[in-house]
Each structure stands twice: as structure tokens, then as C-alpha cells.
Design brief:
Number of domains: 2
Largest sheet: 9 strands, mixed
Strand content: 15-25%
Number of helices: 12
Bound molecules: pyridoxal-5'-phosphate
Radius of gyration: 22 Å
Low-confidence stretches: none
Helix content: 25-40%
């Protein structure tokens, strides 16, 4: 069954029940309740390995993989990155704090942010080895603070070239984007770095998220290499064409776009581009978030009520936009399966919505599904990226329990939030 290929690689069906990493989802729900998120370590490991293998085969100079923590960062997740010696891209003091608390070493922390606060910069000075400078004002603030130990600086270029993503809100590299610096601004920033003797070591851009054709990266790579030639880096220099490689969320999008295709496209363009310009090969960094962790995650919800309205059959679940706002934000398209009898005949078309007071609190629209009754569990695959990291307490929602599944054992990565914890920031009259 094609839909099953969206699930983690350790997924199986035994006794007509969905299992992940050998664990029955029903039994996990009995113990931990719903909504429940589970990450499968095998799937995460194999995604990290796919990047490393592809880089080793196609890029003949040093290369590193950076996990974009915005996809989902927790102590457990940050510690997992270190099993693979990944760099962790942190946006702001919060993510820096999580990575540092997880024991990620300074050399593996890189800091992004489009409008970094003074507190973000202070945390970066304390914990990071690299700051990716987004704009000239930020650079001037760094110069003013002039900390005793300044991390390496990379400049973020706005290439003005878009990639094809499924929604305009997941594009970042087009010329009207709020991210990064224009070509002229990058040159001004490089000049400021030279004048102030700052450790300018690299160049970065990121064009968008969830694309599956690396072709639009090529003109941006050319533009970045032209800039590098003009700036003239001394010694080892770093180049990062961001992340954004896509994953399949729905069976219509299968197969999952191969990481090898993406890495080879970039590696060849960098090698050829450097050769033509007589540049030394940079330390190449790739910065995936979604393609490392999305497929590893599954969300499990319980269906409460079922309503028939016109042509729609609504399955109303106990999770929705508070743990996964992606449909509300940009119409993300998902699939799902019932936990019991997942291979049952697709007897109807259903839409799935959560319990929150918003009409946009939709998880899936118009999906052919096997029969599901009130009280049944459903599992939504490809739930590992940009769900929990964008989750909220809307309507007083308590953020879900998150499990780590490996070799037949489940560990709690994050417990379910309690009502008491919803009050910790509050003062009464
Ligand atoms: C600077 C930067 N790097 C990497 C990523 C990761 O993107 P993705 O999770 O789509 O790979 C993002 C996502 O927005 C980003 O802004």
C-alpha cells in the first residue's frame, strides 16, 4: 500500500494494527494518551546517513550537515544530532539555550535569525561558533558590542531567485523577501568586516522550503561564488546554500525526493563554479530541517465525533492546529491511516478537523479512507517537522506528549503539558 511509504521506515502491520519500531501504537496510546507524537530513530538515522553518504560521494572537500532546529528542537532531538556530529542551526536565544542545555558543543552551534535581538546575539557570543549575519544593522551592532570572542561570521545573501514550493509563504530567496542581504549589501558588509578586522568566513543563502527541483539553486550558487571572488576570502572559507529539500506528505507526492539528487546537484555546481573562477573549494554545509526529521515523526489522534455536512464527512479529532498549524498556515496536504485495520478497503472520503475554535483548524481535506468509527485512532505520517515547533496553547491546548521510539522501546522526549504548566507565566490580580 503506497500510503504506508509515507510512514517511518520501521513501520509494520501486525495483527491488523500499525506498529512503529516494533511498538503497537494502540498500546502506546493506552499508556500515554492522545494527541501523541512519536519519532522513530531508525528513520532519522537513515536520513542523516543519506546526507553524509551523498556528500562523501559527490563532494571532494570538507562538508558538514547542519540540522535546522526550527523543524523541531528539544533536548532529546539536539542530543540525537550529536550522534551524527551534525551542526545545529539555532534561531535566537531560545533554540541556542536548548542546544547548549543538551550539551551541543560550541563548534556545532550556528546561529540564524532575520532580526536578531541583543539577547540573541549575546547568546550566540556565549555558545556559538558561527553567526550568519542577516543585515547591515545587525553587523553594526556586532561591531559595537565587539565581544572578546567573536564567532565566525557568514553573510546571508538574498539571491533574488525563487524555488518552486507548494506555497508562497515557504519561499525565502525571491527578491522581495525579508531574508538576507542584496548583492550590494553583502559587499558593503564584507567591507565593514575587513575594516573592523572581523572573522568573515563564509557566505550563505536559503531559497525556500519543501522544494524538489535543485535547478533554481544553480543561478544562486553562481551569484554567491561571484561574490566570493569579489570579496576574496582568505584561507578556508565556508559556503552554505541552505536547506529546504522536500519530502512527500501525501501518496500523490511519492516517492520521497532522493537526497542524493539534491546533494549531487549542489556539489557539482560548487565544484564546477569554483574551478571556473579559480577559487579553492569551500567547506560545504547543507542545512536541512524537514528532510532530516519530517518522515521520522507520526501524530496519533483519537476521533471523537463524526459529522456529515453536505458532501463532507468530518472526523473530529483531539489534535489539530494547536499541534500542527501547517494546513492553516499554507494549506499543507496530508494523508493518514487508521491505527486498526489500516489496509481496510477505502470506503469513503473524509475530512479531518481538530477541536479548536477556528474554521481553519483542519488537518486533512477530502481523503479516501478505510472505515473509521468514533473512538478509533488515526495516525498521520510525516509529522516530524514544523508541527511541534510551531505548536501553540490556543484554546488552552496542552502541548502533546512526544515519544522517541528505538529498537522496540519508547522513551518520553517531552511529556504532555499540564494545566498547571499553562499557568506558570501568569500572575493574578
Ligand atoms: C536559514 C534556513 N536554513 C534551513 C532551513 C530549513 O528548511 P527545511 O526544513 O525546509 O529543510 C530554513 C527553513 O526555513 C531556513 O530558514
Amino acid at each position: 500500500m503506497k500510503r504506508l511509504e509515507l510512514f517511518p521506515i520501521s513501520t509494520s502491520i501486525e495483527n491488523d494494527q500499525l506498529r512503529i519500531a516494533g511498538l503497537n501504537l494502540h498500546s502506546l496510546v493506552e499508556k500515554y494518551g492522545t494527541p501523541l507524537y512519536a519519532y522513530d530513530q531508525d528513520t532519522l538515522d537513515s536520513a542523516a546517513q543519506a546526507y553524509k553518504t551523498a556528500l562523501a560521494s559527490h563532494y571532494p572537500a570538507p562538508a558538514s550537515v547542519t540540522y535546522a532546529g526550527k523543524a523541531f528542537l528539544s533536548l532529546f532531538m539536539a542530543q540525537w544530532t550529536q550522534l551524527h556530529n551534525l551542526t545545529v542551526d539555532c534561531t535566537g536565544e531560545g533554540e541556542i539555550g536548548i542546544a547548549a542545555a543538551a550539551g551541543v558543543a560550541r563548534e556545532n552551534i550556528l546561529v540564524h535569525g532575520v532580526n536578531k535581538s541583543d539577547a540573541d546575539l549575546a547568546a550566540a557570543f556565549d555558545h556559538a561558533s558561527t553567526i550568519v549575519v542577516d543585515n547591515l544593522s545587525e553587523l553594526k551592532r556586532i561591531i559595537n558590542v565587539s565581544p572578546a570572542k567573536l564567532p565566525d561570521l557568514w553573510l546571508r545573501l538574498l539571491p533574488g531567485v525563487s524555488v518552486t514550493t507548494h506555497h508562497v509563504h515557504t519561499q525565502t530567496g525571491h527578491h522581495e523577501s525579508k531574508f538576507g542581504m542584496t548583492r550590494d549589501e553583502v559587499l558593503q558588509a564584507a567591507k565593514l568586516c575587513k575594516e573592523n578586522n572581523l572573522p568573515l568566513k563564509g557566505i550563505h543563502f536559503h531559497q525556500g522550503s519543501n522544494f524538489r527541483d535543485p535547478e533554481p539553486l544553480l543561478p544562486a550558487i553562481e551569484m554567491a561564488l561571484d561574490l566570493v571572488k569579489e570579496i576574496g576570502f582568505l584561507g578556508e572559507w565556508h559556503f552554505c546554500p541552505g536547506g529546504g529539500w522536500g519530502v512527500a506528505y501525501h501518496e500523490d507526492e511519492l516517492p520521497h525526493p532522493p537526497v542524493e539528487h539534491y546533494v549531487r546537484g549542489i556539489a557539482e555546481a560548487v565544484v564546477d563554479g569554483c574551478k571556473i573562477r579559480n577559487l579553492s573549494l569551500p567547506h560545504l554545509h547543507l542545512e536541512p530541517g524537514r528532510s532530516l526529521v519530517a518522515r521520522g515523526g507520526v501524530a496519533v489522534y483519537r476521533v471523537g465525533a463524526i459529522k456529515r455536512r453536505g458532501n463532507k464527512t468530518w472526523l473530529l479529532t483531539d489534535g489539530g492546529m494547536a499541534d500542527n498549524p501547517r494546513f492553516a498556515l499554507y494549506g499543507a496536504k496530508y494523508a493518514c491511516l487508521p491505527v486498526s485495520s489500516p489496509k481496510g478497503e477505502r470506503s469513503g472520503v473524509v475530512s479531518i478537523a481538530g477541536p479548536y475554535c477556528e474554521s481553519g483548524d483542519i488537518v486533512i481535506e477530502d481523503l479516501p479512507m478505510p472505515n473509521v468509527r468514533e473512538g478509533d485512532l488515526i495516525a498521520i505520517p510525516v509529522a516530524g517537522a514544523y508541527h511541534l515547533s510551531m505548536s501553540s496553547n490556543y484554546n488552552g491546548a496542552r502541548r502533546p506528549v512526544v515519544l522517541w521510539l528505538n529498537e522496540g522501546a519508547a522513551k518520553v522526549m517531552q511529556k504532555r503539558e499540564s494545566v498547571q504548566e499553562l499557568l506558570v507565566r501568569d500572575f493574578g490580580l
